[in-house]
Amino acid sequence: MMTKPRLIIYVQNLLGIGHLRRAAGVSRAAVNKGFDVAFVSGGIPINELDVGGAT
């Protein structure tokens, strides 16, 4: 059985959410390409942020 390639995305968002939103787009694209993505944020959790199924 082949394992999915892994990717971790870390965003330290302290002043605004621009970098966080861009990283979420990268996460969605990577998940759609078959990556196992771990999305880590250094800021306050945003429940509505769509990271494409990343953990």
Keywords:
single chain, 55 residues, alpha+beta, two-stranded parallel ribbon, 2 strands, 27% helix, elongated
Task: Write a short abstract of this structure.
This protein is 27% helix and 22% strand.
Written description of the protein model:
It is a single chain. The mean pLDDT is 92. With 55 residues, the chain is an alpha+beta fold. It is built from 1 helix and 2 strands. The protein has one domain (1-55). The radius of gyration is 11 Å and the shape is elongated. It has one helix at residues 18-32; strands at residues 6-11, 36-41. Strands 1-2 form a two-stranded parallel sheet. β1 (6-11), α1 and β2 form a beta-alpha-beta unit.
Write the layout of secondary structure elements.
Layout: E1 6-11, H1 18-32, E2 36-41
Parallel strand pairs: 1-2
Number of strands: 2
Task: Give the helix level as a range of percent.
Answer: 25-40%
Give the amount of beta strand, in percent. 15-25%
Distance between the termini: 21 Å
Strand order of the largest sheet: 1-2
Low-confidence stretches: none
What's the overall geometry?
elongated
Q: What is the count of helical runs?
A: 1
What is the chain-wise order of helices and strands? EHE
**What is the CA-based Rg, rounded?**
11 Å
Question: What does the average pLDDT come to?
Answer: 92
| Coarse structural class | alpha+beta
Described by strand count, sense and barrel closure, the largest sheet is:
2 strands, parallel
Assembly of the depicted chains = single chain
Q: How many domains comprise the coordinates?
A: 1
